[in-house]
Automatic annotation (TrEMBL), chains A, B:
SUPFAM superfamilies: (Trans)glycosidases
Organism classification: Bacteria, Bacillati, Bacillota, Clostridia, Lachnospirales
Protein name: DUF4038 domain-containing protein
Gene3D superfamilies with a match to the protein in the record: Glycosidases (3.20.20.80), Immunoglobulins (2.60.40.10)
Domain DUF5605 per the UniProt entry, residue ranges: 435-496
Apiosidase-like catalytic domain location: 90-338
Domain DUF5060: start-end pairs: 2-63
Family matches, as InterPro entries: Apiosidase-like_cat_dom (IPR025277), DUF5060 (IPR032260), DUF5605 (IPR041239), GH (IPR017853), Ig-like_fold (IPR013783)
Amino acid sequence: MRQYEMFEISLTGEISEDNQAEVTAVISFEGKEKQIKGFYAGNGVYKVRFLPESAGLYRWKVNGAVSGEGEAVCVEAKAGEHGLVKPVGTHFIYEDGTRYIPVGTTVYALLHQEKELREQTMQTLQTAPFNKIRFCVFPKHFDFNSNEPEMLPFQITDGRPDPAKPCYEFWDRMEEYISRLHAIGIQADLILFHPYDHWGFARWSRQECLTYLTYAVRRLSAYPNIWWSLANEYDAITEFKHEWWAEFAALIRKEESCRHNLSNHNLLWKWDFANPDTTHVCLQSSAFEEVPELMEYGKPILFDECGYEGDIPYPWGNLSGFELVNRFWKAAVMGAYCTHGETFWNPEEILWWSKGGTFKGESVPRIAFLKEVLESLPGDLTYEVSDAERAYFEKGREGLKELAGTGGFPAAFVDYPNELLPLLIRTMTEMRSSFRDEVILIYNARQCRSFLEVELPAAGHYTIEILDVWDMTRKVQMTGACGKVRVEMPGKEGIAMLALKEH
Amino acid sequence: MRQYEMFEISLTGEISEDNQAEVTAVISFEGKEKQIKGFYAGNGVYKVRFLPESAGLYRWKVNGAVSGEGEAVCVEAKAGEHGLVKPVGTHFIYEDGTRYIPVGTTVYALLHQEKELREQTMQTLQTAPFNKIRFCVFPKHFDFNSNEPEMLPFQITDGRPDPAKPCYEFWDRMEEYISRLHAIGIQADLILFHPYDHWGFARWSRQECLTYLTYAVRRLSAYPNIWWSLANEYDAITEFKHEWWAEFAALIRKEESCRHNLSNHNLLWKWDFANPDTTHVCLQSSAFEEVPELMEYGKPILFDECGYEGDIPYPWGNLSGFELVNRFWKAAVMGAYCTHGETFWNPEEILWWSKGGTFKGESVPRIAFLKEVLESLPGDLTYEVSDAERAYFEKGREGLKELAGTGGFPAAFVDYPNELLPLLIRTMTEMRSSFRDEVILIYNARQCRSFLEVELPAAGHYTIEILDVWDMTRKVQMTGACGKVRVEMPGKEGIAMLALKEH
């Protein structure tokens, strides 16, 4: 047994017709007891899994469909094992304190492709910058996704998938990939439901959903790299009642052996991120200017679907490489995160976004560059609220009037409609974030500035770098800068400025 | 006297202290009489001007501060003289029936620069694609605009510009440029007020404004190429009451010798384009998706300030050349029009947008290409309302529900908030416009499509061209296309498709 690695108790018992047998383990560690539910893994095998988060002596006792007991010494984590990724404010950190900067990609139907393609995908991921991947339990039926999978997660009974009858082979495969993703440092952002269905998963009753979730969570929650994504486009699953989703989240919290990240992905209607079981904001959106309002949830903000680099007819699937990179940087400078995906059409209909394979676009190395830049900083960036925004947040229109009185805000803008004011205020200044007084990042996006007056914290001296997000260059522009400085810029799209405090 | 050319009656009388002397001419033509007001031109000279819109015998009789009478035969228009530009529906046409496709630029303080620079600007315009220019009567005080003009339109009395005391030399200069612009086919979109002021023009009383407008309109309205732009950023002139603007428009209609195009340019609050004296929609905006709603005014739509190609810090002044060209095409495919401007910083602070000079950007030849493409078409383009938009316009949400029932609209989208539905609907389909069943234009903007299914009118056969708006190429892709066709596209930004009916 090793800290941060799944520990599995496997016991043999009766062959079961379905997965409804109850198995419970009581785990004792340092005088505390924890109850964990097991699951039926097929072939008369029952398993209970848990993730030891600390080193030491663990005792376990299993009861139910099978029984047994034992103990094991859990040794300190292996180098490179960091434990679960947990939210801290609007950012993430591994359990052992290591920074985790989410840089995700998307291969929705990863598990439902043929072996050769799955292996190619894993090979591609091996050298890619991504440390999170969104993929689905269920197969996908959609444009460019008409290939029937070799097997389904559940058996079809009377033309309907039966959540009490898993295809154990599928679940074994899923676990294999979750483990292999973990081995290459990738969080498995597992999508539990989605609307692109013709098998019946998106038409399950509430009870069928709960049966499925109970099984999935008992089985998978001891994998350290699991994240729960309740759905992709939850609001497009028209057969599910809205109140089910919070119930699903609560069930997951009850059944999981340790608390994983959890959120829900929308088509049109954002999920309620105030939901206490929800750990982060997950969005289909490229409205990065809404980040300051979203920050009020106090949770990390992931634009998990901000559009895909590609060339298909749909507007969500034909961004230029530059535009996707631009969106990653826009999110980054707001203190948020984007997720990658690729939708290049080809006669084989192997589009990375659903099926994996290889990258055909130009964004991936640039996303790697962004990741390197963020990793090189001493801490995570947070959006800097401007004076006008602060005035507006704190005192509404009156605050802006006061600021206008001192020349800090244009008087003509004060009477703008309330709901549009925050965005108006935001577009008036550059996008800027910081980490304490150590780092200031400004990102010009598509604005081709040839210079910018930048206000630095008065106390320190700063080295100013100009970054070209497409050419992937960092160039020192000034050293010893302090106070208000004019920074020369190359007057093209995709330029960022980093000010780093000198020590 | 020649049709479509200004006819001027010039009489000498008393030297006047101010411009308040009244002169009235009665013009008789084919049994009809028209009263036209004259103005004092300085040095004891009084003038009455009018624009003969038809050939024939004109008689005139002047009374007031000076008097006189006479007659003249007006001969048919010279080749190349087309008369006034008038709105017809959402497009324009010259008085003689020639198409006018507005392709404007902006040199706000054209008249207030030194002669050498003014001449350079005129030389640049000579070979440029522009057929409209926005410029101000008053000088401009703003960033990059700190040079005091040689002279002001009005004398300063007690530290305040006096609208009764013109600097006649300035008005002569203005007229010289209006004439010279006309000679090279450029409409003079004259901005009558603006907020970038430190002389006092933007702090005039209502009565002072009326005095000024009366003089300007009596003096300038016989120039065939004059358009009246009540203001630039009218809503930023905080000293003027909102109700003044409609009064100014009405005064212009009363005083002008023939009806010119008239509109008003906003900062934040769009002008009321339903105003009966307003001939077209004039916007500071790049929200081209709002065109279908704006079309309900039944007037041409000009995005007179959609951002400038340049590199200054402000977001409105640092578009890439591509982005400005992209905006021109987005407007074009919505059946609307953009206006050009350039804001490249240089140590001399000569930015085209305010001062003229030469072009430093890359958009101008591409704008010329767009103009050529539009001129090559048999008629003006009008935005094609999609089935979903029509359903929504006609029956609101119920219409969408019906359409969703037949599979023509995603059911999940029906309940989206009312105010956001039109935009949502619009982003779901390609931007497409047409001229009868003769021409269909689709513009992909930044969407990098590698193909698109296009529905052509069933009756005809079409030649399909692919246009690269940046590389300025037109390439025939298919001939004899009809019905639903798959059109291959180069999968990059800035691609348009033209379908031209074969005859």
